[in-house]
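ASSEMBLY PREDICTION REQUEST
Request ID: AP-0331
Submitted by: J.K., bench scientist
Number of chains: two
Total residues: 229
Priority: normal
Notes: Please return the full assembly, not individual chains.
Input sequences:
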Amino acid sequence: GAGVSQSPRYKVAKRGQDVALRCDPISGHVSLFWYQQALGQGPEFLTYFQNEAQLDKSGLPSDRFFAERPEGSVSTLKIQRTQQEDSAVYLCASSPTGTNYEQYFGPGTRLTVT
Amino acid sequence: DQQVKQNSPSLSVQEGRISILNCDYTNSMFDYFLWYKKYPAEGPTFLISISSIKDKNEDGRFTVFLNKSAKHLSLHIVPSQPGDSAVYFCAASGGSGAGSYQLTFGKGTKLSVIP
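STATUS: Completed
Returned structure:
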């Protein structure tokens, strides 16, 4: 079956612009995660959804970051008034369950803020 | 404070030989460990996992060993193939609350398998 897909794959934004990153998880997967990966680092947790409920947003770096999953499938990560430090790869992952199970990652969106 | 550490940024191995990638962790609440492989411009791909109730898990050419007392795990690839050249991430989860679903990753080890 299809894996996790993300769009766009690459995004260049001018500082101050708003961006929206989309994630289509594997069909039927209850759990959805967003991670941020800076250059030379491992992915870092941003937020977690179980169906449409956002159960954890503790990793979001600031209130400029907002994520939603209104119907329990597709998710959008929105970044308002982008800053240069937001430049990173944003990874989405899904899992049939939330806990102690492998998460399946999409290809990521590489965001560059100029 | 890095809770998952991969102290070798890179590793080169001859084709056909064994590759051993190491990972150390500090959080004693971690009880589930995973290895991911990542090619450039792609997302991490799940490779193999191990629960803390085991000390070894094998899947084809890949074996993960867990030493709980040393808080250390390793991934063995035998025999190594050029297609194994990638960045390998160690990840962990465990405990209650956020720890049970958040994956904490190391910084990765770049493996190069030389033909």
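REVIEWER COMMENTS: Chain B has a mean pLDDT of 95.
SIGN-OFF: pending second reviewer
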